[in-house]
Amino acid sequence: MRWNQQSTLGPAVGAETSPKTSSPTSTPGKGSDASPAELFGLKGLVRSVRTPEFAGVTFHEVLAKSALNKVPAASSMPFTWTINPYRGCSHACVYCFARNTHRYLDLDSGEDFDRQVIVKVNTPEVLAAEVAKPKWSRELVALGTNTDPYQRAEGRYSLMPGIITVLAEHGTPMSVLTKGTLLRRDLPLLARAKEDVDVEISMSIAVYDDTLQQTIEPGTPTTTARLATVKAAANLGFRVTVFLMPVMPKLTDSMEHLDTALRAIKEAGASRVVYGALHLRPGAREWFFTWLEREYPELLPRYRRMYAKSSYASKEYRAWLSRRINPLIDKYDLRGSGDDDYPKTKRGDRTKSPALNQTQAASLTPPPQEALF
């Protein structure tokens, strides 16, 4: 990393920095770089940095007060604790559900989410103090539940090795969900951690069409590279889960696309697939519709109808998708626990999911989608 070529924006707090760059900055919320003084509500800011290796991206380095996030008891998520060392994500997935969280920082959920990345630079140290407390219960900690822990910024900051080491040393099981092939760097470390605690690895791979993948997930590694990472993890003995989500109506839900996806996942050595239909929360919805109007304008009216009253695809569409994909999951022997669409998995429930409903498995040729979408 050419650290001598970085530029630091604005005065640092408690750290030495280089002089302020002479290039202009503009107001956050407009999809462009912002100076630290303009970042309303960003506590613990140390400095904001740009480097040639990450053109167009500004890293805002902050000192976090805590690393562990408690998941509300009412949540249906099968874990109680999460860690998110980054906010914002250069993967720039158009559909990302976390986009709206940037609005809490007075940044927009579009280009700012992709280009203004918050880095909690002291996460491993803060985590070490938290899990060393006698009251720490050593419950599963999920990594990658909000923004990706192996996005490109991790190549610069290397926070994950410290996080993994701390959790393992304190007997804490962990799960990792990512789209980043940088995961391969830490596979040996995760394998060592797995000797002492449970370690779950999941790779998110939604699109198996190169052209579509490059436009809807422009900052992510290719599908081929992610499948290779699945294989590398499987070769080390991990039972890798692939998240085939979101499945997008009229874009990635054809029989051809789904069959290609599941065959490739199986060949990569994954153990199971979890799938889900596209959901569009506020923030993501507007950004996705802007992309859709530009790339697939003929689909925009249909999407507006489907997501007019809810962030989720219609119940009818989800049932249709279930009938279409479940026989393929069984065909490729990729069924694991809790892999139904929008699972109601209770925390700690590791039981097998019920056998496939006869109605779901009845047909590989469901009714025309036109009636549903």
TrEMBL record:
GO function term, MF aspect, one: iron-sulfur cluster binding
Ranges of compositional bias, category Low complexity: 17-32
Keyword Iron-sulfur in record: yes
Region (Disordered): 1-35, 336-373
Keyword hit for Iron: yes
Record key words, sorted: Iron, Iron-sulfur, Metal-binding
Protein name as catalogued: Radical SAM protein
